[in-house]
User: Fold this.
Amino acid sequence: MPKLRVQSFAISIDGYGAGPSQDLQNPLGVRGPELMEWFFPTRLWRRMQGHDDGETGVDNGIAEQGFAGIGAWILGRNMFGPVRGPWPDDSWKGWWGDEPPYHTPVFVLTHHPRAPLRMAGGTEFRFVTEGIHAALEQATAAAGGRDVRLGGGVSTIRQYLRAALIDELHLAIRPVLLGSGEHLVNDIDMRIWAMNARRASRANVRHTSFCANARDGPPLISDGSSRDRGSASLGVTRRRQRWPHVS
Assistant:
């Protein structure tokens, strides 16, 4: 069955997925790029920038997994661009140039209608005004049996978390403190998730694996540590049959 997946979504150690004051000059907010420092050296990112180099370790493997088996994406409007309110025209075509990295249909949540936008490489932005459920329904249909990736931003992921629609959530937890910005899980009870912590990579990180749902009793825990530098990658999988509604 196709899944709705959040992959490689970076947050600070104090839970922020974006810094404050997001705008054209700071699309991730002030200090937001620090959240992505685990990703920038990877071969996947470097190839997106037109280079042939890049690291091929654990971080790159995790990043590549986030693109495997994806047939459509869902983005919040802020992830598409800095324009607010009604679209003044069709001149803004995203942050990524003529060929965005998606290569699939991308469903952008917005309150303001806009015609679909075809880009090079197979990406087509389709603008959805009917809300998160309509976007998921349309993306699932377009994905043709493959998974749908929820790219963010923070507010959009929070909406899908509260609606209990996310199947898998992978977080890259960076050892930085932002102190302010957009918090990912504030007021959301994450204890209902069955957590399966994956590998921590780069920067003095501790590996921790949780292999149980709270309703099954105490979790089985194994942990270790890494002397590598970078981010802790935490994989979280929802158990469909035990997912209560989040109010």
